[in-house]
Amino acid sequence: MSKVSNKTKIATALIGALALAGSNLVMADPLSDVQKADSKIHTEAATSQKKVDKYFDQAQDMMFEYGSVVDERESLKSYNDYVAGLVADQQATINSIQGDINGVDALRQGVVPLMFKMVDALEQFVALDLPFNTETRVARVENLKVLLNSAEVTLAEKYRLILDAYSIEREYGTTLSVKSGQLELDGKNVLVDFFNFGRVSLYAMSLDQKSAWMFNEETKAWDSLEDTHLRELTKGIRIARKQGAPDLFSLPIPAAEAAQ
What we know:
Layout: H1 2-102, H2 104-128, H3 134-148, H4 155-172, E1 176-185, E2 188-197, E3 201-206, E4 212-216, E5 221-224, H5 230-240
Antiparallel strand pairs: 1-2, 2-3, 3-4, 4-5
């Protein structure tokens, strides 16, 4: 009994040991699987994180690109608005010019009669004015009358020449001038210096400076000046010729007409 019992105990112990060992082997396989699964999860997590980082970077790039596109769009919009304003202004200018072009014919119809009236008025003015530079002034008027009927001269050039003639006549009234010529007196021609004091008065002095006359607008004749005025007239002539310094001089002038 004792021997069998001990053997039995030994066998039982061996069986228990083997059972325990078998149990450990059985438990080791699930743990390994868990470790493998955990490692796989970490690997996949790292891969997923890389993908997330990649998508995040792509999203950031797209956001930056979107911001650039928005800025460019705003810039282009501002430029387009500016160009649109220029186009509108140019169109307004074109419309204005077109309106002027459309009115050229009407303007021409009004300007041409005006120019003829201006030349006629200038001709009458020269005829009624003091007789200084008469040949030059009359020739200028006659030239304008010829130009008005010329097809080779533009309307603008005709108008400019008429204004130039008026400007010259205006300057005559504000300057002193001297011109040598012949004065007919008692059927004789006398060489004289014609001296006009603007349009106030017109004088003539013989070249020997011993005789002088003043034009009488009422009688259209030349009245003799007293010898006391010869010195002053000589002084005025010298000043007009730039042969003397500007200075005061005294000469008789026609009386002003009484107001009507």
